[in-house]
Amino acid sequence: MTTTAHDKVELPNPLDPEETMSRDELEALQLERLQHIVAYAYERVPMYKKKYDEVGVHPSDLKELDDLRLFPFTEKEDLRQNYPFGMFAVPMHEVTRIHASSGTTGLPTVVGYTEQDIEDWAKLFARSMRLSGVKPGMKVHNAYGYGLFTGGLGAHYGATKLGCTVIPMSGGQTEKQIQLINDFEPDVIMCTPTYLLTIADAMQKKGLDPKDTSLQIAVLGAEPWTEEMRHELETTMDIKACDIYGLSEIMGPGVAGEDVERQDGSHIWEDHFRPEIIDPFDPTKVLGDGEPGELVFTTLTKQALPIIRYRTHDLTRLLPGTARPAHRRMGRITGRSDDMIILRGVNIFPTQIEEIALKIPGLSPHFQLEITRPDRMDQLAVKIERRDDCNVEDGEKAGKELQRLIKIHVGSSCAIHVVEPGSLARSSGKLRRIYDLRDNK
Ligand code: DLL
């Protein structure tokens, strides 16, 4: 049989040695790296020296992994106060890349990378993709936004490192996305879960069945999403959808990635990041594995921007490793503590509404939450689209059911407005779910 240039061949795809280490070996490596990075940050970044001197803690106090809790946290505010480059630990000529995340308020958060940092990032993104079933030689449609956002270039370098063919589409231009998916026949798509929903929705509007594409795997992240959303995307598109997690301050996407077979949460690459879970209301309390709280990260190898004990404000818990036994997994992010709606004393996250709504036939995953304060009392309204095949009357019934289930499971009364299919804003990246319309919040 003759092979043509386009035939697929099985390419080598070995694991990194750190992926198969024992937990003891990994912890020994973590301690060695942690001792180095804390001393490195103290010597090179004035903010760390000041903070540690103020509370009387010194890098030499770090004798075992648990001693990390002696050191103060780093907050987004620290990066802002040192805007733009005040927390860089290397001279600018060693910084080969700068990214920034657009803060919703105020200054962007600026992050920098040395050549080695970029190399490590690509390796960890490639490792995450491999765990999610992506193989060298596959075609990857990259619809994360390129530019200052870490999604596009992070995914691009990772896919290149794994040995894939990258289609650098970036976010937006949904019509063009559909055309290229049809014509280039990629195996993998990478974007936010809500943007994949937008693409699938737009395909259906054009009379195309999203199940008929060449896509087999989606590597999705950058925003919270639920098992119900995974089910929705997998059944609508006939694909496997895996999670990828990361944040700019710590590296970008690829801090953690998910196994395609088990789909049981993302493995944190603990040879490069040391995670902790703290009580967000009493941050001095470091919680045990399995307990829900706020995720805190320390970078173990970053050269340009070492970050010690960064408060992510992401709420989750740590679980034992499975596909990569030494590396712990994180549970699904239920939300960010700063994304939490507190309605008359009850905490509400958009993921809770997503989880409930997607279980009700007739309701779509397209919804937004509006908070108003009509008579000095906060009110929540859920605007949600009914599905195309659900009529107005059944949509109203489904809305009543949503209201009832939110009351039972979340504990809050809210108004429900079931709206026409296609009437709410669609995502082209990270979707905004919450609209706070109160005058003085
Ligand atoms: O969103 C990096 C990224 C790009 C991750 C592409 C995955 C894929 P930032 O813009 O700095 O970086 O936003 C980081 O997004 O603290 C979480 O709140 C949220 N986030 C990221 N990934 C996930 C995920 C990128 N898989 C913030 N599940 C984080 C839930 C996520 N939330």
Write a structural description.
Catalyzes the activation of phenylacetic acid (PA) to phenylacetyl-CoA (PA-CoA). Keywords: Ligase, Nucleotide-binding. This is Phenylacetate-coenzyme A ligase. There is one protein chain. The mean pLDDT is 96. The strands form five sheets. The chain has a nine-stranded mixed β-sheet with strand order 4-3-5-6-7-8-9-15-14, sandwiched between helices. A five-stranded antiparallel β-sheet has the order 11-10-12-13-16. The protein starts with 22 loop residues before the first helix and ends in a 5-residue tail after the last strand. Helix 1 packs across helix 2 (46-55) and helix 7 runs parallel beside helix 8 (227-237). It has two domains: 5-21 and 113-334, Rossmann fold (3-Layer(aba) Sandwich), CATH 3.40.50.12780; 341-436, ANL, C-terminal domain (GMP Synthetase, Chain A, domain 3, 2-Layer Sandwich), CATH 3.30.300.30. It has 441 residues and is an alpha/beta fold. Helices cover 29% and strands 25% of the residues. The longest helix has 22 residues, at 23-44. It has helices at residues 23-44, 46-55, 76-81, 115-131, 150-162, 174-184, 193-205, 227-237, 350-357, 392-409; strands spanning 97-101, 109-113, 139-142, 165-167, 188-191, 217-221, 240-247, 252-258, 266-268, 273-279, 282-287, 293-299, 310-316, 318-319, 329-330, 335-336, 341-343, 346-348, 363-372, 379-386, 415-419, 434-436. Bound molecules: 5'-O-[hydroxy(phenylacetyl)phosphoryl]adenosine. The site of 5'-O-[hydroxy(phenylacetyl)phosphoryl]adenosine (DLL) has 20 residues, from helix 5, strand 7, strand 8 and strand 13.
